[in-house]
Amino acid sequence: MIRVRFFARVREQLDCELLELPWEPRYGTLDGLQAALEQRGEPWGDVLRQPNLIRAVNQAVVSTNAILQAGDEVAFYPPVTGG
Amino acid sequence: MVRPLVRDRFAVSIQTEPFVTEALQKALHEREAGAIVTFTGYVRACNDGAAITALELEHYPGMTENSLRAILDEAAQRWSVLAATVVHRVGLLAVGEPVVWVGVSSAHRGDAFTACEYVMDYLKTEAPFWKKEHGDTGSRWLEARASDSERARRWQLP
Predict the structure, then answer these.
(1) I need a labelling partner for B53 at 20 to 30 A (CA). Which of B4, B95, B134, B150 fits?
(2) How does the average pLDDT of chain A come out, rounded?
(3) Is B132 an interface residue toward A (CB < 8 Å)?
(4) Poorest-pLDDT segment among A26-30, B1-5, B15-19
(5) Is the CB of residue B152 less than 8 Å from the CB of residue B124?
(6) Does residue B25 lie in a domain region?
(7) Model pTM?
């Protein structure tokens, strides 16, 4: 299984905060997982293709592609605005 | 010399409850501390000209705490820090309520001032918090500010 979390504006736009997906080989990279999610139809494609989307794997921000394994936790969120 | 990091002197709290700054500051104090610098951030009454009635804060549980601890670790590697605390509130906050508190103690004021500013600058650009403003005309998620990224970039080593 792979766990995918969405936060803030991205969460609202998708009306989804958590996906628990049975493991598939196409989720073997972060780009592969994102492409699979974008193919879920609208609004998924538009929301996940927005500029400045931040991606994290196992709670660490990833700036390029990354290898994923079953059990990983991935998150998609907009630029942070705390403080 | 890099001071070995004493974990319990570097505290992080994410909470819905208000905090008492006097108690937080007192807990930071120790005999070797010649200076404590603190920062308190509050909910402003207006932002970009729009009146605000409340601020809602969302975060990424787990990652937020790890991210703040990493920022404190980095500050303690770069400056002589005796102890440091970050408290950040989440949930629904009213105008005028405190949102965030950072306190740093050090032997001398220079390190305390600098490390406190560094922690705030990185908190604003890296820790996974998001603000949603509620006002008379509706609600909106805040956009990240380029000026915050520029402030954080100043600290990057050449």
Answers:
(1) B150
(2) 97
(3) yes
(4) B1-5
(5) yes
(6) yes
(7) 0.93
CB A41 within 8 A of CB B94: no
Residue A83 lies in a domain: no
Domain residues for B92? 8-153
CA A32, distance to chain mean position in Å, is: 10
Q: Which residues of B touch A7 (CB under 8 A)?
A: 58, 60, 128, 130
Residue A9 lies in a domain: yes
Residue of A nearest to B145 (CA): A81
Contact across the interface for B57 and A8, Cβ inside 8 Å: no
- Domain count along chain B: 1
What's the CA gap between B55 and B141, in Å, rounded? 10
- Which CATH number covers residue B143? 3.90.1170.40
- What's the pLDDT tens digit per position in B101-157? 999 999 999 999 999 999 999 999 999 999 999 998 899 999 999 999 999 999 987
Cβ–Cβ below 8 Å for B125 and A77: no
How would you label A46-67 residue by residue, b for 16+ Cβ within 10 Å and e otherwise? ebbeeeeebbbbbbeeeeeebe
Domain count, chain A: 1
Minimum distance, in Å, between the CA of residue B120 and any CA atom of chain A: 7
Of B94, B86, B152, B10, nearest to A80 by C-alpha is B152
Residue-number span of the structural domain to which A61 is assigned: 2-77
Across the interface, whether the CB atoms of B130 and A8 are under 8 A apart is answered yes
Q: Give the domain CATH number at A19.
A: 3.10.20.30
Is there a domain that residue A23 lies in?
yes
